Amino acid sequence: MEIRAIAGAIQSIDDELIVVNLFEGVETPGGxxxxxxxxxxxxxxxxxxxxxxxxxxxxxxxxxxxxxxxxRRVLVVGLGPRDRFSLQGxxxxxxxxxxxxxxxxxxxxxxIVHGAGAGGFPLEAAAQAVxxxxxxxxxxxRELKSEPPERPDPEQFTLVQFDAARLPEVQxxxxxxxxxxxxxxxxxxxxxxxANYATPTDLARLAVEIADEFxxxxxxxxxxxxxxxxxxxxxxxxxxxSNQPAAFIVMEYHPDREDLDTIVLVGKGITFDxxxxxLKPSEKMDRMxxxxxxxxxxxxxxxxxxxLALPLHVVGLVPATENMPGGRAYKPxxxxxAMNGKTIEVLSTDxxxxxxxxxxxxxxxxxxxKAIVDLATLTGACVVxxxxxxxxxxxxxxxxxxxxxxxxxxxxxERIWPMxxxxxxxxxxxxxxxxxxNVAGREGGVGTSAIFLQQFTEGYPWAHxxxxxxxxxxxxxxxxxxxxxxxxxxGFGVRLLVQFLRDWxxxxx
Length: 509
Ligand code: BES
Ligand code: ZN
Ligand code: ZN
Hints:
CATH architecture of the largest domain: 3-Layer(aba) Sandwich
Radius of gyration: 24 Å
Structural class: alpha/beta
Number of helices: 15
CATH class of the largest domain: Alpha Beta
Largest sheet: 9 strands, mixed
Strand content: 15-25%
CATH superfamily of the largest domain: Zn peptidases
Bound molecules: ligand BES, zinc ion
Distance between the termini: 37 Å
């Protein structure tokens, strides 16, 4: 979709549809909505007076202009109560409007920047949120459908800014919003894509393609032989059971700039998690194609930072493999040796994510990063603790890094919540045979998984995000589901990471 921003008054815009808004309880709209209402001879006030328009969240009322304005239709979207309005509300409002536009068969539409005027948010951030909501709201996964969709997507979206002097802010926000949202849609595609179309080899090919888009980005794909040379016994142990060759992907943005801060991102890239010999139940096992949600977020974030030209040395690491119960598969009771020399007793082959991450976290030390953040669909226990689709778990050894991630979460609307790394969790994964066991009992399962990872993070500030509950949106298309999410892959983590990195680049600690 083409996204642009222009200066002008929304009521004078000639387009198939123009979008304005209304806070709940407002009877006489002001600002842009008021101007449109005036030009329409009070049509919006009339709708309010009849109770057909109340400004409730999710509400979208279409009015026909019948020549009163250059535009053919007006869409009034509800913002909900003014005192509970947020940037997340801006995204959701924009998503409602975009979906309505598509439903109406509109190919081109224009909108004011929700949230900037009476909403009180900075214009640039509001413009970014509107564009994010628009693109995310229209997302659908259609790669493997033979027929075109009944309703095509709109081709053009225009943000209309009244005060021409402030147009650059809207343009800047819109551009960031487009880059970030398109990256999130890439991550959604990767998650939705069936595991037979998104093998480790496919992910590696995509990583190379992304790096090729940018002068300053490099990608190296380590084969299983390379990984063996490096001593990545934990990663290779998981890969053993699959006929698909594993790949350890190393992407680097600004590899040669020693003046820039180094941040490492690590994404769990299990392209299918059958559980291995500790086989999962067959029900809903198809969801385990999404066990590379962390990898999807990292790959997509790398593309976004390339497009944003962020002044940071960012390394993206993706250990990619299937977890399968093949004839050569690793078995419960086997002991693996990770790259940092630690030995791990495999008590469950289904706790494979922490094994491949162990080697990735040990590998990351060579970059001497200022911070490292890993994202992983690591445990069902995290979903039990925080809920499906509610928040990701955040673990960190560093208060500053934790605070930065929480701030980025607040700004991006992607929820994460801090969890503890108590000593008891480490005691729980003691092994009789090896240095560590890969699982403990059911209790505290999210804490024991995180503290396991910590054993491989020597020498740098580290944070871990358990995104198991955030990768798939499960709710059907009801008012309960936020309108910027569709059933299926969410692309969780991309907006959070990009915000975190942009903040880091703008205020180097
Ligand atoms: N990929 C799963 C975790 C998961 C569960 C992701 C639900 C998304 C939704 C992970 O590899 C796993 O199987 N974890 C086990 C760990 C257990 C064996 C300690 C789990 O959570 O059951
Ligand atoms: Zn597993
Ligand atoms: Zn897994």
